[in-house]
Structures are given as structure tokens and as C-alpha cells.
């Protein structure tokens, strides 16, 4: 299948979304909360998603869209999976680590992935079997052979105050002396694993729009993505461990307190 027209759509949509992020970052935005007082949604999230949907509908009538803010209507062989603004809390504070993430799934398999970092303009792209790229140049995961000395990242769900699960994992990793970051935009965290800036990443309670594009980036860059117990990953699994493949087992064993 020629994926170029779809990649082209994903790119156009990502740049439109980035423009909307920038517009509201400049002129100010309204915001409200969703599941918890820290689960924020801004005008930029909503307008970016609306613009992405409009562009996809115009170019590919009949394709289904799953978006964080608007959900999904209907079913179909072609499904776009969209996080219009990943890292909204960072965005709302002007902390420059947020992005747009767009994946295209065809008959259950993600075949195109685009993550665009709004603040830096860094573009991460992948197509199934076609490799992963950063600003058009091929990327590979890191070569780090062991966890100690690696740089890994995680994230926390909005209900962290009610559920300590990831604090348990984090404590185990930190207590081994491993360096951990919490950048705050899962799709971009995954892109950082793909390009070797991070050696690993894990998170609990992710959603398909956080993962669709980033997972393809990592796999196309030679890395590994599994569930939290090392099982094959399927989109919809809310628990994810990603790495450069070399440190994967050690990261899993550390998270589960086996090391
Ligand atoms: C969130 C970010 C964050 C992660 C959360 C996500 P949002 O997405 O990716 O890093 O820890 O689990 O929900 O709400 O900013 O799109
Ligand atoms: Ca997200
Ligand atoms: Ca979002």
C-alpha cells in the first residue's frame, strides 16, 4: 500500500494543530477540567482536534477518527487516532514540552505515525516497514546495554492521588539509582525513545491516542514496546513499557521488584 498520501495528510494535520497551539499560546486561552482538578483541557486542545478532523474528513471521506476530545463515531478499516495536544498541563503552564500526535490504523494495524513538538518544531515520522525519522533523517534507538546509566522516563495518570500503582514502580526504579524523568507528554516521550534521547519509558493508564504514533516510531527505530508484564503490546492496553530493546527485560524486572 502506498502510504505517502496518508503520511502527507498526517503531516498537514499536525502542522495545522501546531499553528493552533501557537496561536493560543500567544493570545491566551480558556480552560476547564475533565476527570480530576488537574486534568485540564484548553481551547487549543478542542480547536486543534476540530481542525484535524475537518482536514481528514475533507481528504479521506469515510475514514473514522478517534480523538481524545471528540471520541469516535462509527467503525471502519481506516481509523485515525489523534491526540490534538499531548502535554496539556505543560501547555497550560507554558512549559515547552507538548506536541500533537497522529496515527493511522488500517485494519487494526498502525501504519503511519507523526509526532510534532510544537515548541521546538521537531518532527518525528514513521511508516510501517519504512523506518522512523526525525526532521527527515533516519533515527535509531539508543545502544545503552544496561539500565544503570540509562535515562528513562515515566508519567502519571490524572488520578495519581487515588492510585499509587505507578509510585510503587517508580520507587523500585529510583531505588536502584536509575535516572528517571517525568517530561509530561507521553507521545513525545515515546518519540524520544525512538531517537535515542531516552533509553526507556513506562506508564500506566495511557490511552490509544497517547501511544498510536509513538509506538510505531519506536518499533521502526529498532526498539521494543510491550505491556507491563512483557506481553506483546496491543493498542488499548493502558500499561506500556518501551525501550531500546537491550534494557527491556531489566526494566521490566526492576519495575516488578525482581531485581
Ligand atoms: C497526558 C500526558 C502525560 C501522561 C498522561 C496523559 P494529555 O496526556 O501524555 O504525560 O502522563 O497519562 O494523559 O492529557 O496531556 O493529552
Ligand atoms: Ca495525551
Ligand atoms: Ca491531549
From TrEMBL:
- The top EC class is hydrolase
The UniProt GO MF terms for this protein read: inositol monophosphate 1-phosphatase activity; metal ion binding
Its cofactor is:
Mg(2+)
Report residues binding Mg(2+).
68, 83, 85-86, 210
Name the Pfam families for this protein. Inositol_P (PF00459)
Record-linked InterPro entries: IMPase, Inositol_monoP_metal-BS, Inositol_monophosphatase-like, Inositol_monophosphatase_CS, Inositol_monophosphatase_SuhB
What EC numbers are recorded for this enzyme?
A: 3.1.3.25
Lineage top rank: taxon: Bacteria
UniProt keywords (A-Z) are: Hydrolase, Magnesium, Metal-binding
Substrates-to-products reaction catalysed: a myo-inositol phosphate + H2O = myo-inositol + phosphate
PROSITE patterns (alphabetical): IMP_1, IMP_2
Instruction: Give an example GO biological process.
Output: signal transduction
The Swiss-Prot or TrEMBL record describes its family as follows: Belongs to the inositol monophosphatase superfamily.
Name assigned to this protein:
Inositol-1-monophosphatase
